[in-house]
Amino acid sequence: MSTVKDDKLQREIQAKLEELPPADWIRQMIDHYNRTGSYRLEDLRRLLGDPNRAVQIGPDANLACFLPRGKER
Question: What is the pTM assigned to this prediction?
Answer without folding.
Answer: 0.49
